[in-house]
Design brief:
Length: 133
């Protein structure tokens, strides 16, 4: 029995706390933010180009452009990346500045719901126009 207590005392402080706490997802969150930021650079350029190119265009012209699958997919990818990036960024703000567990939980749930809803509505709109007769 004495050998067991000596063995547990031989652990370093890092070994004793490994696997505990919220440190498991911090790096993943950090890299997801960076990856979506990098992906947003060319994708937002495509979105801005599309908006400028179709400024003042008729609905029929916009639909004709969206019937090109590459354009429709690029716009959906841009919106997916932007919504994901927005959700990640707002999650950090919520976690840092809301201290009540209930308020934090509600705000995080609302953040996910709004970002997901925004993307779903936008993707549905693009797909509906891209498959229009």
């Amino acid at each position: 029995m004495n050998e067991m207590s000596n063995a547990s005392n031989m652990k370093t402080p890092l070994k004793r706390v490994r696997g505990f706490g919220a440190s498991k997802t911090g790096t993943e969150h950090f890299w997801q933010q960076r990856a979506t930021a990098v992906a947003n650079l060319p994708l937002m350029a495509v979105l801005v180009w599309f908006l400028i190119a179709h400024f003042g265009a008729t609905r029929a012209e916009v639909i004709a452009s969206l019937q090109n699958p590459i354009i429709a997919l690029l716009l959906i990818m841009a919106l997916a990346s932007a919504c994901w990036h927005m959700r990640l960024g707002l999650q950090v703000v919520i976690e840092d500045y809301l201290h009540s567990h209930l308020a934090k939980f509600a705000a995080l749930a609302l953040n996910i719901a709004i970002a997901t809803s925004f993307f779903a509505i936008a993707a549905y709109s693009i797909l509906k126009m891209s498959f229009a007769p």
